């Protein structure tokens, strides 16, 4: 069971009960291992996709573990819920343009893929009253390129044909995750210049065609990530309804991440219950007063608590 609210608040801000509208969602986590699709190239055994039944126990707690300085999580959730509601209401995408496609971009290691998985899990829980089951299909883009001429486009089409079979179930919510989408959507102008093989152009064309076909389905959402947005074909970028930059965490986010790590180590028994934990970041401003430099104090707090983590009392000594 989880309690949620539609209202977004700045990181660390406290809200009173009368400022919220509580929603209670009851669900059961799936313990199933992800299924694999053996559609890779040249029979190399590399699966072209993995499929999870949602909500999955493997993704439990992901959403809350992600800390950002901006309201990117709330924005993505609002967009995705609106897009799915548009589909349910029968809104004509030719009049109100929406492709139900998300592009998260930014430097490596900022949690883009994890955020996509957490969003899929969140949507499955929120729409549990509408869809009997949820599925996350993670595409292995690197397995869709073949050494044989013109085969890459066929592999892309074959993969999306399987996804289309899943989407045929109207009581199933299907989220498609394409990580490092630039490997599948390399800019076609590079191929024209001679730096990319012509088969890569066919793969891009096939993907764009399949995305256009999927947008007519009301129960599917496409989530993509990229570390190199300059390499993505502009036609794909244009199809993304929302393009969100996921940057490196700022001071407050780093502090909150550190605090959550300390709390988890204490909960798991790695740290003794008597070990002091970092106070909430908001308390720094209160304790220092208006005349103090909270930014500088925050940086010192992050540094001091990072050093202190090495001296927190472990529950028992462990030799490695």
UniProtKB/TrEMBL annotation:
<keyword id="KW-0547">Nucleotide-binding</keyword>
<dbReference type="GO" id="GO:0005524">
    <property type="term" value="F:ATP binding"/>
</dbReference>
<dbReference type="InterPro" id="IPR003593">
    <property type="entry name" value="AAA+_ATPase"/>
</dbReference>
<dbReference type="GO" id="GO:0007131">
    <property type="term" value="P:reciprocal meiotic recombination"/>
</dbReference>
<dbReference type="Pfam" id="PF00004">
    <property type="entry name" value="AAA"/>
</dbReference>
<dbReference type="GO" id="GO:0016887">
    <property type="term" value="F:ATP hydrolysis activity"/>
</dbReference>
<feature type="domain" description="AAA+ ATPase">
    <location>
        <begin position="98"/>
        <end position="250"/>
    </location>
</feature>
<dbReference type="GO" id="GO:0005634">
    <property type="term" value="C:nucleus"/>
</dbReference>
<dbReference type="InterPro" id="IPR003959">
    <property type="entry name" value="ATPase_AAA_core"/>
</dbReference>
<dbReference type="InterPro" id="IPR027417">
    <property type="entry name" value="P-loop_NTPase"/>
</dbReference>
<dbReference type="GO" id="GO:0005694">
    <property type="term" value="C:chromosome"/>
</dbReference>
<protein>
    <recommendedName>
        <fullName>Pachytene checkpoint protein 2 homolog</fullName>
    </recommendedName>
</protein>
<comment type="similarity">
    <text>Belongs to the AAA ATPase family. PCH2 subfamily.</text>
</comment>
<dbReference type="InterPro" id="IPR044539">
    <property type="entry name" value="Pch2-like"/>
</dbReference>
<dbReference type="InterPro" id="IPR003960">
    <property type="entry name" value="ATPase_AAA_CS"/>
</dbReference>
<dbReference type="GO" id="GO:0051598">
    <property type="term" value="P:meiotic recombination checkpoint signaling"/>
</dbReference>
<keyword id="KW-0067">ATP-binding</keyword>
């Amino acid at each position: 069971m989880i309690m949620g609210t539609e209202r977004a608040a700045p990181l660390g801000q406290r809200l009173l009960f009368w400022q919220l509208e509580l929603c209670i969602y009851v669900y059961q986590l799936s313990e199933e291992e992800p299924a694999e699709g053996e559609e890779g190239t040249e029979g190399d055994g590399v699966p072209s996709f993995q499929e999870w039944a949602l909500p999955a126990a493997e993704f439990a707690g992901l959403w809350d573990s992600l800390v950002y300085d901006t309201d990117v999580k709330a924005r993505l959730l609002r967009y995705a819920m609106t897009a799915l509601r548009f589909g349910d209401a029968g809104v004509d995408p030719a009049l109100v343009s929406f492709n139900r496609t998300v592009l998260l971009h930014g430097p490596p290691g900022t949690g883009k893929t994890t955020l996509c998985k957490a969003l899929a899990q969140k949507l499955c829980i929120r729409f549990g009253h509408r869809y009997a089951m949820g599925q996350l299909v993670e595409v292995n883009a690197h397995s869709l390129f073949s050494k044989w001429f013109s085969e890459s486009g066929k592999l892309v089409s074959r993969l999306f044909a399987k996804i289309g079979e899943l989407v045929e179930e109207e009581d199933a919510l299907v989220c498609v995750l394409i990580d490092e989408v630039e490997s599948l959507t390399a800019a076609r102008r590079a191929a024209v210049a001679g730096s990319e093989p012509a088969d890569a152009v066919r793969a891009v064309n096939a993907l764009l065609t399949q995305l256009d076909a999927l947008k007519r389905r009301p129960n599917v959402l496409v989530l993509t990530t990229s570390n190199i947005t300059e390499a993505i074909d502009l036609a794909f970028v244009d199809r993304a309804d929302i393009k969100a930059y996921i940057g490196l965490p700022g001071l407050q986010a780093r502090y909150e991440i550190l605090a959550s790590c300390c709390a988890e180590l204490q909960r798991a028994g790695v740290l003794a219950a008597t070990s002091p934990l970092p106070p909430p970041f908001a308390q720094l401003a209160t304790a220092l007063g208006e005349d103090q430099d909270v930014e500088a104090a925050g940086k010192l707090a992050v540094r001091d608590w990072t050093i202190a983590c090495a001296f927190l009392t472990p529950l028992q000594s462990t030799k490695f």
